[in-house]
Amino acid sequence: MASSILSDCSSARLLPLRRALLPQRLPRIRPCPALASPRRLLAAARPQLLPRPPRMDSVPAAAASSAESVTVSADASAKVIDGKLVAKQVREEIAVEVSRMKDAIGIVPGLAVILVGSRKDSQTYVRNKKKACEAVGIKSYEVNLPEDSSEEEVIKHIASFNSDPSVHGILVQLPLPRHMNDENILNAVSIEKDVDGFHPLNIGRLAMQGRDPFFVPCTPKGCMELLHRYGVEIKGKRAVVIGRSNIVGMPAALLLQKANATVSIVHSQTKNPEEITRQADIVIAAVGVANLVRGNWIKSGAAIIDVGINPVDDPESPRGYRLVGDVCYEEASKVAGAITPVPGGVGPMTIAMLLSNTLESAKRIHKFK
Amino acid sequence: MASSILSDCSSARLLPLRRALLPQRLPRIRPCPALASPRRLLAAARPQLLPRPPRMDSVPAAAASSAESVTVSADASAKVIDGKLVAKQVREEIAVEVSRMKDAIGIVPGLAVILVGSRKDSQTYVRNKKKACEAVGIKSYEVNLPEDSSEEEVIKHIASFNSDPSVHGILVQLPLPRHMNDENILNAVSIEKDVDGFHPLNIGRLAMQGRDPFFVPCTPKGCMELLHRYGVEIKGKRAVVIGRSNIVGMPAALLLQKANATVSIVHSQTKNPEEITRQADIVIAAVGVANLVRGNWIKSGAAIIDVGINPVDDPESPRGYRLVGDVCYEEASKVAGAITPVPGGVGPMTIAMLLSNTLESAKRIHKFK
After folding, report:
1. ipTM of the complex
2. What are the alphabetically sorted keywords of the record (chains A, B) (predicted)?
């Protein structure tokens, strides 16, 4: 049965397995039970719960606003946290706000994207961001520089956008060519326009009590937004973040902590990741290892946010591979209370949060409530 | 027996109990067993293990360098981590380096302290810092401003020290008078001279992989230094930090994480602090609640760093009170592998690390190795 093979959570068939990120002592891998493919599972489980949106200008701080909250249920399948649906809602709310702002003060939020080189994947990401901007009425500016540009040239363009009043957000598409120093370039982005939220000053303010960052990095902000919109209680809960990258794991842990969860961070040096993860009411997996988190890592009823997007071999797919998360969906969805699918979970939220940060920036700069 | 009463870990006799910091569901408090006072215990347990110093300019990153490492021993008493002794060693090493630098390039490190108002405790702290500077050959500069000074006046003095080449570290003594905004004032300190390490840019760099802060906040740096000098292994170990303040708990957690521990942060909203703490090989307690951490919170053989300094009622003391930590020393020292006493543990390390940061700053500014 092809589908049972395709949904096998054993890592034997994984494509580029990032060994550096793997915990040193992984539990013995058991094959995943035969199940329908995640895509079919997802279709069958389309959420009965339609999240109600909070106001966009206070998204991360908004209390859980969905009518129904996620509850523990060991026997039933987990609720599907539908990122595609939420991202669509968020984009619609942003479009309304952009239009309201334009009508009231004549200002249109602007996002500038700088792309260096001609990587196909980066070009696709930039095109998608541009499209998403257009769809909600945000003006986008794009600069394409050749692969062999100097750091100074990139920084010159950043400086120009820093002082351009029609630009409220600046994004440098990563990865940069190898001869460039990411840190020098990202630090050149004005802190008030750093919509990616990667500046260390933003991270520091995120870590500190009594301070707030100008911007929250988009992917972890998207994770929190999903938890909020699906009514997952965070305060006083145990949360485990798997992975500690600067762009997802670490800021996600800081956000959960700011929301008063008791947070543990599991990483490549953790000796018993499954045992620690099993204590968590909320899991955010962002380690980049396909199907790492098995069903027996998960506490019954936990909310699972799967940030991983990993290609695994799939001879039935026209592309020869398909995308799976860091969590073994088939196993986890039987134990968890709520879970994001891959694709269709966190993925669509990242661009939605980029738009949200750009709108927020324009509102702050122009003191528009 | 007076001593048994004095060493009682029940919180009944606590002086200013900071209720806001208490976990919501504290475990039932059992009276501490009758024991000699901590001071006597400490005298009896003076370390058999004499730590060997790493080089001062790479203190926090230095691998454990003590000849003997801390080992698990459930029956024996815990090793005493003697902060007074280590702080003395650190100060001696700094004195040697200051002298070497003066001889080689004619530069003497300088620390500027700004005190606003006339709080007795702040005056004492500032005096102690000045004395400590003098003892190691660091030049100290002091500005005393009246309580009713304006923010602008304080910032003017900071700006003057920022541009003074003989000053390598600037410290604003906290707390500031109520009419001042701490954030505005601390942010005015040049990031290159922020020897307290409280600037959000420093905290952000501390949180991020692949980045290093200019300075590590003194008290958490002191905690790490104690662990290093007593050969406590950190990589791959479970660590729990109790408390999440900007100046101790949060940066301590970031430091442990940078050293590859698996870190959990326990705070006032944590529902089962004792259960989580019991999983830790390393505990840093920095919550400001006398004797909060009982013996049954502690894993056998764990290393315990107690940052708390809390006054408790003591009719036998001439002052009417004595100081105890956040950890019930009498109980914990029977279970732990190593433990800091209060006083004489973390306390003396804070000023030693301030001197270390000032020396480090002067070396960096003058490119002296």
Report:
1. 0.83
2. Hydrolase, Multifunctional enzyme, NADP, One-carbon metabolism, Oxidoreductase, Photorespiration
